[in-house]
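Batch manifest, entry 17 of 40.
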Amino acid sequence: MKSSKETRGNAVVSLCMALLLLAAVATPSIVKAAQRQNSDEWQFAAELYLWYASIGGSTAQEGDLQIDANDLIDDLNMAFMGNIAMRKNRWGFMIDALYLNASDNMNTQVGPVGVNLNVELDGWVVNPMLGYLVVDSDKFSMNVVAGARYLDLSTDVDLRNADPSAASFNQRLSGSGSNWDGMIGVRGEVLLNSNWFIPYHLDIGAGDSDFTWQAFGGLGYRFERFDILAGYRYLSWEFEDNAALDDLNLSGVGVGVKFYF
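Output type: structure tokens
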């Protein structure tokens, strides 16, 4: 398993390379390009989306945690995903929210020992952010964003011996609490033509967590009053003092519909 320093360094390098690529040429812009001529008026948008995400990470006992998207859907108890946004002139504000309640059972390795893990996760992820439009051309837009990432997470991990012929053991790890992390990043669109566009979002942050980062890229099609989008999203945390988890990540493809009013 990679160290926290190595993982953090790789994430920062990846973010810098992506920013350079975007300058050369996580989510859609707060308002669509066709509406920017009305910048003196408040503009609003709301999006609902489905995220076909897998859960990965490692436990505090260095066991690998992996719940595939198919398993997550089978074991999903409840979920909500959506965001609302507003803009006036070059300033914008958005809140993105995700609620997830799921559980799964799997076999993994803790050192040389094969163990059975029963994992229960219940949590909110809320991202309020303020943005400023710094680049706005016919082909490309970029907002600099700053805000927070709130994670409220309750985790229960039961570890049992996966080999019935070996000496039995049972250990329960529980962790609950909330993390507030500050974050900075960029978000916007690459406009392919009057209808097709590429939305993107990149951010990094820290605070109660050792490190957190998020990336999104996709493809969208613009109608008169709404957009249809599809893309890939990755969201990650490294924890310092969580009793159950060392790190956690959510990743996968998603689709959404964004309405303007």
